[in-house]
Amino acid sequence: MMGAESDNEVYLDFCSESRGEILNIYIHGYSAANNDDDKLFLKNKVSSLPGNATDILLFWPSGNIWSMDFKKAVFSFLRGGVVPGALMTVGEKVDDYLSVERDIPRLVYEVLYKINKFISLVGEYKYLNFFGHSLGVRLIIEAMLKLPDDFKLLRVKNLVFMGGARKLDIEECQMLLNTISGDVFNIYSDGDRILQFIKPDLEKCIGRYPIQYPNSDRVKNIGFHHLGHLDYWDNLNGIVRYLDFDCVNSKKIIPVGNGVKEPHCFAVNDIVLYLPLYHASLEEKKILAHVLRQKSSASISQEETCAITLTHELQLMGGDSIANMARGHGVCYREILYDAAMKLDISNPELLGFVSLEETIFNKVISLIKNSLDSSSKEERNKYSDILSELDLGVGIDGMTINTGLSLKSFILISDFIARNVTIGSASLLNLSMNAFSGPAFSVTIPSIMLLHYIRKRVALEFGEEFLFQCYSEF
């Protein structure tokens, strides 16, 4: 960072040592950079991107969700639940978000000044692109609409909006196009429940809806409806590779779900679960079938390898069996992750995207198994120590690729161990309720999450992190 900056002001920082003739400036959203860990997370996500551009993060005073008490209420809303007495709390605390939003127009002059000052130190460049997320989209739009001539001097080429927390009318869109030399890319998701919660269609945010701008190939609306509002940074690498500004990636688009009928339509639309299984090897699919078959209610064979069937079965295992019968299918993978995180006492799972939450669950279970083995027999410790070291991501993902066969065989033993030891305990037995008998089957969903994380990492290495964005569905 160039100088000690205050969290109450706008400042920019390089994300890596890489320098190129193109500048990419990334702008975070609400409450995304509250501390050094948050800022390092964002910088690491950007620094891992392909290409040799100069990547820069613009930090700004974006509020602090950690001071708010309505996190659990928000996630309850996302899942369709009810929190008694939460409405008053939510109504009071949403003001923090809205106050940050209202303060954005005051920041536009500072934003322009700080950008000019920073890039003057960079030296010559060909053009720059802006990437914004959430309220970061609102910030850059407000600044460019207020000061179009000044931004035109910056040689802005492309604008990439991700989960934008603002509407954009035709006249405003035209002003942006007049200011830039390239295109506007609007990445949106009708599955963005955070925007739905904060702005329930009072403002048709471009993070949930396409930009309505007729007869122009310079406005590109890209609907990735499997993304939630908190998933964009975790999937930034895949998004950038999909956009492929450098024209170096081949886009092999995979049709998913063609000809599929209910109840499997719900399965193939759960892209974050279905696509890793679509790309999984036969051995990986058989291991998942083995894990799911540990539950007596499983309706699949141990040799099942159909990705759609496995997705559907895991969704059923993650849901309440009574509710499953009523709706005709189980629950989405995002809800399976959240329930598992709550079972494992992982703090604030509602503030993690699905990739980060899946990884957190994986590491938590590995840690629990290690701790339980401390008091185990020597024979049992020897049995699992080598397996644990292989599946501990601290050793490195490449090890899983090189030793795929051994690791996958080892995973069967670990999943059996989890089913016997981790999800059965006094706390579970003391909290018996109707849900205890009909609710999620943690003895299979938690091991399945671990395997899915393993598969996702392997597939990302083999096909690239953009594999989640190279598909289309007829639904």
UniProtKB/TrEMBL annotation:
Does Plastid appear among the keywords?
no
Q: How does it sit in the membrane?
A: Multi-pass membrane protein
Q: Which GO terms describe its cellular component?
A: membrane
Q: Where in the cell is it found?
A: Membrane
Listed A to Z, the keywords are: Membrane, Transmembrane, Transmembrane helix
List the Pfam families hit by this protein, alphabetically: DUF726
By what name is this protein known? DUF726 domain-containing protein
